[in-house]
Write a structure and sequence with these properties.
The structure is a homotetramer of 257-residue chains. With 257 residues, chain A is mostly helical. Chain A has two domains: 41 residues, no CATH class; 197 residues, Cytochrome P450-Terp, domain 2 (Cytochrome p450-Terp, domain 2, Orthogonal Bundle), CATH 1.10.230. Chain A contains twelve helices and three strands. In chain A, strands 1-2-3 form a three-stranded antiparallel sheet. In chain A, helix 6 packs across helix 9. Chain A is flat, with a radius of gyration of 22 Å. Chains A and B meet through strand 1, strand 2, helix 1, helix 2 and helix 3 of A and strand 1, strand 2, helix 1, helix 2 and helix 3 of B.
Amino acid sequence: MSSAPEAPTTRIATERPDDVIIRGKSLCRDLIGKFGFTEMILWQVLGREPDKGDTAVVDACLVALMEHGLTPSAVAARLVYSSAPEALQAAVAAGLAGVGSVFAGSMEGCAALLARVVAAPDAAAEAKRIAAEHKAARRPVPGFGHPTHKPDDPRTPRLFAVAREHGRAGRHLAAVEELGRAVDAAVGRHLTINATGAIAAVLGDIGVPAEIMRGFALISRCAGLVGHLHEEQAQPSIRALWRAAEAALPYAGPSPK
Amino acid sequence: MSSAPEAPTTRIATERPDDVIIRGKSLCRDLIGKFGFTEMILWQVLGREPDKGDTAVVDACLVALMEHGLTPSAVAARLVYSSAPEALQAAVAAGLAGVGSVFAGSMEGCAALLARVVAAPDAAAEAKRIAAEHKAARRPVPGFGHPTHKPDDPRTPRLFAVAREHGRAGRHLAAVEELGRAVDAAVGRHLTINATGAIAAVLGDIGVPAEIMRGFALISRCAGLVGHLHEEQAQPSIRALWRAAEAALPYAGPSPK
Amino acid sequence: MSSAPEAPTTRIATERPDDVIIRGKSLCRDLIGKFGFTEMILWQVLGREPDKGDTAVVDACLVALMEHGLTPSAVAARLVYSSAPEALQAAVAAGLAGVGSVFAGSMEGCAALLARVVAAPDAAAEAKRIAAEHKAARRPVPGFGHPTHKPDDPRTPRLFAVAREHGRAGRHLAAVEELGRAVDAAVGRHLTINATGAIAAVLGDIGVPAEIMRGFALISRCAGLVGHLHEEQAQPSIRALWRAAEAALPYAGPSPK
Amino acid sequence: MSSAPEAPTTRIATERPDDVIIRGKSLCRDLIGKFGFTEMILWQVLGREPDKGDTAVVDACLVALMEHGLTPSAVAARLVYSSAPEALQAAVAAGLAGVGSVFAGSMEGCAALLARVVAAPDAAAEAKRIAAEHKAARRPVPGFGHPTHKPDDPRTPRLFAVAREHGRAGRHLAAVEELGRAVDAAVGRHLTINATGAIAAVLGDIGVPAEIMRGFALISRCAGLVGHLHEEQAQPSIRALWRAAEAALPYAGPSPK
């Protein structure tokens, strides 16, 4: 490696013998016992001072995303844990590696579309344009539709209700609803705004940048995986999952000559 | 794979078209907007109904562990992210893989010792025995001492204060203090109860099993890493870290003939 | 972080504008086109000059370990890949996280026992002692037994044949056979020396330290996982695996009131 | 999860009590002791029968990519290992998570461009078009340029020589050279074809699909990381790397009031 002079710095934290300084606050005097975990997440990630509405919206998102049954990510974490029980952290890491573009990533894709609608002079026209583009390209609109939660994702109205209750429903929430109407019209049937679409909207309305939204999914899902692994500690499921996988994907190659 | 009949089940979650059931509660009716994130963690991982004292203690632990500057884990996550920015989740996973026996794991080691003290008929004698065993084996006592936080880890009294304030200081907290006295006497100088020792005690006093304590470190540190990666998105530090690593670990092998 | 002066160095590699030096050899002049991959692995990891017998033994071990069907590790990698196809590397990483104490780790456990047998004045007596200890503790002897490969793991005689053919069968191979006789006598029925036991022996006989043996499993399994993910690229199995996992581990918790 | 009937199968492997079948060959009769590791990789990943030229080209690529000093990936693996020495596999996984779009991924980007050149009726014109497009977009051409290896990456001519020597230099190698001329002309100075560009060409000429090329980088780098961790076992560098990282990225945030 070589080249280009650079002198980056960090504005996050530094330690002293008698304290840890986090974005200018004293961990021991200002944070432990003063901030709840969600407030601390907002402080650590975004440098936000505690605010009841922000915290309520983020709490609702983190609660909504934590658990969704035996997701591919939960199954991967359980398999890795029972193969390597010496390292709980590696099993959580393996599960989180699956919180990617197909699941959590749709949040970012939806956020990018909402940004277009919010920025457009005519929101309804922009929403129609987006729906038409995706239809023409035969691509699903990120944040819409769900294989199980039909006709409507039940998490979405709850997330919107929390945002409204705390006065945090803004232009992104309006934009996702506008987009929903356009999508339904374009496809000719109702597609639900799913939880990642709803979260893209409500996090957008409290000013969370799109590029770090996936981080909130990771924090929430991390806790979900810890729950699965605690159950795995009491009752290993690896044999049952392994057998099921072998049966689900049988060998169809040739036999040796 | 083969053998042993088994019919394991999960008691965590299942999905329905109109809801997600988590340990018997309705995600949409009972949890989103009702539980804070910390309460939800306690529900997901331990099946605990919300309780103000439990929540306060866990909040304090999660706040205390989130951030400690450029830890090896944070550096690893930053290096991986700037090498593979397509996958924020993989960088968080890489960082979490380092939350292992040397750092978070000392929590479990300390919890095991506290369990011995709590179970002993004579706590002071058991604490002395533990201190003597470690001295004889020249092994550090997990949960004691800190390279930076000298003479005392400033997080420890804050964690104890939160536990006391909420009436959750119990036998594990007493045990870690007993053990602290025994350790100081055995080594002949003061060694601080560090944050992982303090957390082992206060989580123990609210009934968190030792084998899943590391999970709480992972949840907290996950959020810490997301903060580091959000900073890395704005200002990549990979070149500076890379150059520094090369300078810190120079090549000392032979030259080609 | 602080303390203790240290000036560590690396003896592995350094780069120059016109070359990369690896353990004192020129990558461009001495290695590319001159060393096969297995020879390069031996050079990189152990600093060994190419040797036909070493290479044959390591080739046999790497070939033997690469693939074993839909292992938990392969299933985890496939699930993560189809959840996050933007990052092939993260899916491989997730799969490798499962190459741990339960599977590959038994190699190290067996190697430790073989070291005892090799070092003992009376190998047969030491082997009996080890078998008796494990029987008394009701612990399986690492490197022995296999759920599918009964009565004998067919990879073991092939690995031993390669070692013998190249004059590399030594005291570790003799030790594992001695231990096999003792184990059979102690349990009162035949338990096969499994592939990890055989590999512990043959790698031990070419001088691979026990603490890095798991690394050879990782290199081999890494290639195995790449094969699974290439198949997953052509034909995603995530839905089939997901459904199978849900069926294998049904929800048995309460319903919401 | 729900929906769409599917009955996927695998053509990779299945186990029997007395054998493991891998793509129709018997592991014990046809592979162990018969195939070298590189041949086995080609069999596992691509279903290729052993061929001296293929093997030589892949050996050269795997040897060329294994090691490049203290890369971000190697540093991450070392930091994770010394933080969690209970899990060598997790440290290797963390390092591999960094073998992504910035480094190994440029191979795929270059392969996509080579496919365009190869498919074009006029290769030189297509190469010029590609160079012009990247110049206009101010994007680097994947596979070209290197911060250290200037003016030329010394690995490239060696890789090309191996391909030529075994009669495997074909249209992709010609295409990357054509593209190199076009890039130099467009930027007005010489930019080297770097190792990932060269590997994209030579793997392309033996028919490795672009989408799995990154897998070869992972296999090779996996071995490189095992070497770093074996050195880390003997001489931990975590303190030196940690201190260096803290110095390289100092805290520049505010102080507590």
